[in-house]
# Entry
Amino acid sequence: MLYSGGFDSYLISFLTKPDILLYFDIKGAYSKQELAAINSHAVYGKKFIVDHTLNLGLVEDKKTLIVPNRNLLFITRALDYGNHILVGFTEGDTAPDKTSLFINRTRLLLNGLSDSPVYLQAPYKKCTKASLLRLCLKKGLSPVEAQHIRSCYLTSKKGCGTCYPCFTKAVALYHNDLFDPRLFDKDPREYKKIYLRVAEKYRSDTRTFKDIVSFVNKA
# Structure
């Protein structure tokens, strides 16, 4: 499983407990924070591997911190570890390299190039973050553990509360009665109008968008 230690991959690793959790240290802007968070929390996998071969920080956009199509690079490198690859995409993921179309086309590409079958799976692509968290809680994940999963673009240890990952984590916690503004450096509710516009721009017809709207109107 491609693993970042963020909210989605943490929850999906809890549900699937894969043979290998594979983290790519791309030496990007928040790689150190991700590794520090991973080393401080429970890791649900039989083996955890850090791969240092992709120095993508060199091409990371300095403003957005985006590396275009980096998941394609991660997936092709992951083939060195096995032919069954799991990615932790959810419904709210709208980047071009996280869509169902990307998964299907990448699967076809890899199988066309490989001598043995490649199994690329995104089993929770149709789940919202809130529904994914709800499933984990039903399977026995501790509410306190769920509250302290780090999901942040900045250097905050617990979460800045101002970036989009912190905001969507807050939405998921809210819909599972676990939201507490003290889990973040700043209250994510102060930025809900900003991120409502972000959500409208990308996927205004999804359940994720409806979860965000409910959070904005009620929280």
Summary: The mean pLDDT is 92. The first strand starts at residue 20 and ends at 24. The radius of gyration is 17 Å.
